[in-house]
Write a structure and sequence with these properties.
This protein is of the alpha+beta class. It contains ten helices and 22 strands. The site of flavin-adenine dinucleotide has 45 residues, from α1, α2, β13, β19 and α10.
């Protein structure tokens, strides 16, 4: 039977980063993925990297975003990987007077907390983003926000892990997990068992099913995100582009409830807001998305949602009215019920860790989430900043973990 000191299940951005950072620290690491590295959310996302700065009092969000930004830069500039990283900045369109007031208050508050953000007039934005709709009321500008290619970035982390000695195994699915008497694990896969001393769950939207294998209830649900792309066009869009509409709507009525995570675009089948994010890739395609809908593990794009999103994008960049959609796709995001990540040690089972719940911004936060859980395992104590996302707050026992 194969064996490893640390076995990480899940070859998305969180698992690949955990593997790289643990391997760098000299641990024996196996990264196990049922498909290819980056075959789920980490490979199909928009590649937007959110960052506002460290702020006056750095919290978990600052660590995850700013730490990840440094890791992306390091992959591109120091480690020899071309992940198409670009410190492009981001522009958030303001469509209505009410959104303008909301954006102005938010910018003032964030600036007073030490974050990098500005309110710009549409005239100022037209000199930076010439295709922007001149009839919009203004834009919030986030100078630190960046972008990178999701598949290349995630695979770069896995490749860096391999270069440091990690064993990256793809095309093998975990089917059962057994906790042994000496608090080690026997992980059954569709191609043989693997023993490990430490187990890390980095399985994104599949945290619930993996938890069940261990007799645990991990409150993470799959939320479908979907996107569309144009054909390759000459350079036309220079920043990542978003809209204030959803943030404003969510601020009026936080839509989380006991049985749904906060900040979704739909309640059941009913749309409650429009969310928007997009950019132009290096290959020239313009890609946009935004919907966040709970549809279980059904992972097919919904044409109506794509059309709504395209209309929203064209309100910000009117030339998109004349460019056909060339392809659409979707993926499943790991949303926790309270909207916060779940990163750290699972108290019910010795030597079991989780890095998940990064929701709709796990590409931009995953690299540092992986580093923090690696630091926890390596150092043996919890990095203080992880107190905010302690699994102990929400992971419960749903039955006895199988012991053999
Ligand atoms: C359409 C879309 C757009 C998005 N846009 C952005 C964006 O612009 N910026 C941003 O920051 N975030 C974005 N996100 C969110 C981001 O992609 C996710 O939060 C992040 O990729 C989650 O990473 P992960 O490693 O937790 O999960 P995943 O990438 O889903 O990785 C989990 C892996 O575990 C594997 N796995 C599951 N079960 C098993 C098993 N039994 N055995 C073996 N392997 C298993 C899966 O195959 C999968 O590869 C977007 C997501 C989507 C879907």
């Amino acid at each position: 039977m194969a064996g490893s000191e640390v076995l990480i299940i899940g070859g998305g951005i969180t698992g690949a980063s955990t593997a790289w950072h643990l391997a760098q620290q000299g641990h024996g690491v196996t990264l196990l993925e049922r498909g290819d590295v980056a075959s789920e959310a980490s490979g199909v996302n928009a590649g937007s990297i959110g960052a506002l700065g460290w702020g006056a009092l750095p919290d978990l969000q600052a660590y995850l975003t700013m730490g990840s930004l440094e890791i992306f830069k390091s992959l591109q500039l120091d480690q020899g990987y071309d992940i198409e990283f670009r410190a492009s900045g981001s522009l958030q369109a303001i469509h209505t007077e009410a959104q303008y007031e909301y954006a102005r208050d938010r910018v003032l508050t964030l600036r007073s907390q030490g974050y990098s953000v500005e309110l710009l007039t549409t005239r100022e934005v037209l000199s930076m983003e010439p295709e922007a709709n001149p009839r919009l009321l203004g834009f919030t500008y986030f100078p630190l926000r960046s972008q990178a290619d999701p598949v290349k970035a995630t695979r770069a982390l896995a490749s860096a892990a391999s270069r440091h000695g990690a064993d990256v195994i793809t095309g093998r699915e975990v089917t059962a997990v057994h906790v042994l008497g000496d608090s080690t694990f026997r992980v059954e896969t569709d191609d043989g068992d693997i023993r490990s001393q430490v187990l890390v769950l980095a399985v994104g939207a599949w945290s619930g099913p993996l938890g069940k294998m261990l007799g645990l209830n991990i409150p993470i649900v799959p939320v479908r995100g979907q996107m569309w792309a144009t054909e390759a066009l000459p350079p036309k869009v220079f920043h990542t582009i978003t809209s204030t509409e959803s943030a404003y709507d969510w601020s009026l009525e936080p839509n989380g409830s006991g049985d749904a995570p906060p900040e979704l675009t739909h309640r059941g089948k009913t749309r409650i807001t429009r969310h928007l994010y997009g950019r132009q890739t290096r290959s020239g395609q313009i890609i946009f998305g935004g919907d966040r809908q709970q549809v279980g593990y059904d992972n097919a794009p919904d044409a109506t949602g794509i059309e709504v999103n395209r209309g929203h994008a064209a309100e910000v960049l009117p030339f998109l009215n004349d460019v056909p959609v060339q392809r659409t796709w979707s993926g499943l995001m790991p949303f926790s019920m309270d909207g916060k990540p779940i990163i750290g040690k699972i108290p019910q089972v010795e030597n079991l860790y989780i890095v998940s719940g990064l929701a709709s911004s796990g590409f931009g936060r995953g690299p540092m989430a992986g580093k923090l859980v690696a630091d926890y395992i390596h150092g043996g104590h919890r990095p203080q900043v992880l107190a905010e996302c302690d699994p102990a707050r929400c992971v419960t026992a749903s039955g006895c973990p199988e012991s053999r």
